[in-house]
Design a protein that fits this description.
4 helices; rRNA binding; alpha+beta; 26% helix; SSF1 protein; PPAN-like
Length: 118
């Protein structure tokens, strides 16, 4: 079973799609591929070689825009593919400063000075 991209986008309340989203390969997460069966090992190796490996010590977190989760169910022998969009947001800052960091312009009409926003 599968869903078309246009059906997924139409079902979302707020969809996030931009050109830079597909400029880098996704972060690949394999779940439940630890079984000793040869076909499961072969599937895991195949998925690992579809995308370049990521060096966690050198990767720029801003370049990771997608995550691909592939989960294997041993009982039904089915694969579950989930494709997520990743968004990096600042944490521990005020709402006004967060908007500035995300390049959105806040409404300054109610403020007398920029320091009130920060």
């Amino acid at each position: 079973q599968y869903s078309l991209m246009k059906d997924v986008v139409s079902s979302l309340k707020r969809h996030r799609m931009h050109e830079q989203q597909f400029s880098h390969h996704p972060l690949l997460v394999l779940s439940n591929f630890g079984h000793q069966q040869i076909q499961v090992k072969l599937m895991a190796t195949m998925f690992q070689h579809l995308f370049p490996s990521i060096n966690v010590h050198r990767v720029n977190l801003n370049s990771i825009k997608r995550c691909l989760l592939i989960s294997y169910d041993a009982e039904t022998q089915l694969l579950d593919f989930r494709h997520y969009s990743v968004k990096v947001v600042p944490v521990g800052v005020s709402k006004g400063l967060r908007k500035l960091l995300q390049e959105r312009f806040p409404n300054l009409s109610r403020l007398e000075d920029i320091s009130e926003l920060l």
